[in-house]
Structures are given as structure tokens and as C-alpha cells.
Known about the structure:
The protein is of the alpha+beta class.
Amino acid sequence: MRRLARFLVLLLPYAWASCAAAQTSTVDPSDATLSVEVLEQAHTPFPSEMVTLLIRGEYRRHITREALEQPDLEGFNWTQLGPDRWTEERIDGKLVKVMQRRMALYPERAGTLTIGAFTHHLTLTDEGDDWFSHDIRSSPVTVQVAPGPELPDGAWWFPAKRIEISDTWSNPPDQLQPGEGVLRIIRIKAIGATPEMIPPMPELGSPSGMVFAHPEKRLIELSPEGPVSYAFWRWTIQPGNDRSAIVEPLRLSYFDTEARVLRDVTISAQRVAYDAATLPAPPLTRAASAVLPGWPAALAGATALALGLAHALSGWRPSVDAVRRRLPMLDPLARKLRQAARADHAAGTRRAAAALLRRDGAGSDRQRLLAGLDRALFARAAQKPDLPGFARAFLQAAPDTKR
């Protein structure tokens, strides 16, 4: 016991000297240090790709108050990855207070960007136990940023470590009750990206459905590997008819910052339908009754039959052209001529008349009528012709009888 007492008496001056050195207004540079480090990456980052920054302070003095001031970080977007972390570490055999802050920086452009000095404002204690202010600063650091890859026109630049997509429905989309809609929610989870980096909510298309878009929601969580951002896209969908509708697929592109490749994600199409068991049975439809041709067609058929029998009995067999000339209602060219004339279509009327001339021969009466039509259509003092009257006269005029 006496030996222990002697040892403590001998140790007391050294302990007092150590405390006196710690509680002094003179601060040795090694008593408080501040450093900024860009954590090493296997590649040169692209614009908007996350760069992790570690701010570390080591303190061998008692600290009464502190505040870490960061520079403007011009050329970067940034977010802090959680609160400052204070611990004690044994360095060179002595316990040292250690402060660490992690930040995610997102460069806004390619080139060499500078991160300015961080300043740690400290309040320390002197020999008289009075407080005094003391600042320490880090050295500036630079970051090299490479130009981003070429993108298709209109594509959204979306770099992320990885993304996860979920597609959920409030109830089975193909088993809706009559008049009911269904809520669709697509959740985008992006690791290593901030919420504004996620593409805007797209339009959900459906040719035969009614789609009502809801305001999107965006959230952020902080994690050691970077921010985790969420986007929620929501639509209420209802079939636009009495049965079903198809919701078109959605497509999303992002840059995988770990694999260094552009990736495309497709959210498949979906059928939205009412439950067939709840729908009323479709009404029975009666088969359409047959409609017999009118009396003009019947009369023409009977006349053709009578002429055929008469000529057969007399030993002469009529040609098809002869029957057409005698029965204009059976002649397709004659029908075209009458239809074009009724529609007041001059060009169609002339084409049909010229076709009849080529087939039947150019009789003098028909040539005269066609020449009169041409004069009415193409003369300098052109007049609107009577097309229905022309068609009647042309069909009544005799064709070339030598054919």
C-alpha cells in the first residue's frame, strides 16, 4: 500500500503537467486537424454521378462547442449522409476524439472541379478554465469529371448505383366490379441518386380506358452507401367500354454506375377488365332476314330470261354484249355512268362514257354527245353541263352496229 502511494505521488506532477498542457491558450497544430478526402472510385465520374466525400477531424483538446462550416460547393449538388459521427480512437497510444461527416456530391458539369476549404469553428478552454475560439481549416481538393455518354434525343440522364421497380394494384385489375376503377402504383427506388434525378412521371396510355393521374410523391432516405430516393407514380384506371381496356407499357432508362452501362427497363402492359361473372349477359341478336331484290332487278332478270329463250328457240344465241346493250341496268359501265352523273362528277361521267365507246364502238350519235360534253367542260367559256341528261341521251344513242 505504501509503495502504491509513493507511485501515485511520483505520477501526480506528470499528470498535472499533461492537464496544464491541454488547458492552454496555445494550440499546437497537431492538437486539432481537419482533412477532406474524396473516396477512391474505380472510374472517373460523369456529371450527376455520386462522389462520396469524407470530412475527418482529430482533436487532442477538450472541446466545449463546435460548428463545421462547409464551402459553397460551386459546381456540385450535394446531400449530407446522416449526422456527424463522434468517436474516440487510439492513435499513437493516446485516445483522440474523432469527428466524421460523409457527404454525397453530384458534379453539375464535366472538367476539373474544386472543393473549397471546410472550416471547423471550435471553442476550447485555457489555463484559467476560460473559453476561447479557435478555427481549423482543411485544404481544397479537386475532382476530375468526365463527359457523359451520348444519349438519344429527348432521353433523361439518370445515373444510379441500382434501381428497383415495383408495380402494385389496389385490387386485381381484371376482376373489377361494374363501374369500379383500380389504383395503380409504380414505385421507383433509386440508390445513389437524389429525388430530382428520377425522371418525371410519364403519361400512362390506354386506347380504350379512362386514366386519371394523381400527383406524384418523392422521398429520400440516407444510408452509408448514399441517398436512397423513392418516386411514387399513381393512376386510377377504369375500362372505357363495358368490358375491358389495355394499359400500354412504360419504359425507363438509367445509367448503371457500377456496371458502367445504360440499361432499359420495361413495365409490361396490363389488361384492366370487369369481372365477367358480374356482367349482364349480352342481348340476343336476331339474324337479319334476307332482302330480296326489288322489282326493277326482278323485271330485268325475267326479260333477260325471256330473250334468251326466244333466241334459243329461233336458233340464234345472244352475245353478252348484245344483252348488255338491250338491258342497260345489267351493264356495269352503264351503272357507273349513271352514278357519276347523279353525283355531278364530270370527270367520272366522261371516263365512263369513254369506256363505253371503247367497248361498244364509236357510233356517230355517241361521238357527237361526247364532243358536246368536252366543249362544255373544256371550252374557254365553259358552262356547267347537264350530266344526268347527258347520261340518258348517251345510253339511248345507238352504238356502233358494225361491231
